[in-house]
Design brief:
Number of strands of chain A: 0
Order of helices and strands of chain B: HHHHHHHHHHHHH
Structural class of chain A: mainly alpha
Number of domains of chain A: 2
Oligomer: heterodimer
Distance between the termini of chain B: 29 Å
Number of domains of chain B: 1
Order of helices and strands of chain A: HHHH
Largest sheet of chain A: none
Helix content of chain B: 55-70%
Strand content of chain B: under 5%
Chain lengths: 100, 235
Amino acid sequence: MSLEALIAILGMAAVTFAIRAGGLLLANRLPTTGFVASWMKHVPGAVLAALVAPAILAGGAAEAIAAAVTALIYVVSRNLFAAMLGGVLAVYLARLALGG
Amino acid sequence: MHAPAPQSGSAQFWLGIRMFLPVAVSIAAYGVVWGVLAGQAGLSVLEVALMSGLVFAGASQFVALDMWTPGALPVLSIIIAAGIINLRMLLMSATLRPLVGHLSLPRQLGAMFFVSDEQWAMTMAEVRKGKGSVAFLLGTGALSWFAWMGSTLCGRVLGAFIDDPTRYGLDFAFTATFLALLLRPRAVDRRRACRHPHVEADRGQLVHHRRWPRRQLRRGPGRNHQGAPPCRLRR
């Protein structure tokens, strides 16, 4: 294992634990309403959207179809694993069908 | 202080494990996915074990894989991204303070290590019913840790046998997982959606949490004083 990988992992662990511990220690001072609170709630979603969008937009028709299938399965089943499997299967079949 | 749990610590611990089992199965399912993707991103088995064991936060680990380029790792960016993704846990662990408040500080912090979306949601659902305890929190936490650790390692080992992931559409697993995570109702939003007394009446002063489990007990487990239905754990 490289030193940079070790530093990255330990850094992630330290930051994540600091957040978990920080919530407890700052419990009385954290804003639960207003801009900061909603920013904290919505930022992970925004980051995920930023990661998903290029992969779907840069892909072809197969990726677009599979994305729609994934979203549909997840909304109906609320099961992450089913959505992932369905998405993978859809992209596999769509690529076969479209010859991509 | 919260109301005394009706059961002994070890009974609560095992109750947590039993109740969390179905959730742990679904955690393990995407743990396997993460492990396979980690192998593709170039993480070794040891790196997988270290990251799953110490970071123990799925969404941020998925994002880290997306940024993982061995040889020229954007170390600082990866750490900052993990911080941003996990910032939501600040609000989650804050709500657990009444539950762990009577413990010594090192023990309180130790219990916080396990805070994760599903485990927090289930523990808070128990607290709302006037149940829930530190032992319950630790039971669900321990199971969720072992499920995540075991499944990510399995995925990493199994993934080594898949030579060309794009042939089976496995390269899309990333996008599909992120897309589903994006559509997931967020834990903190779920809390708000239940209209708890402390959010509505106390305008977010979390210190008032201390009172409400007891209040809830007196009122019975069915409905809170706003007439909102009790929360159910949704996945």
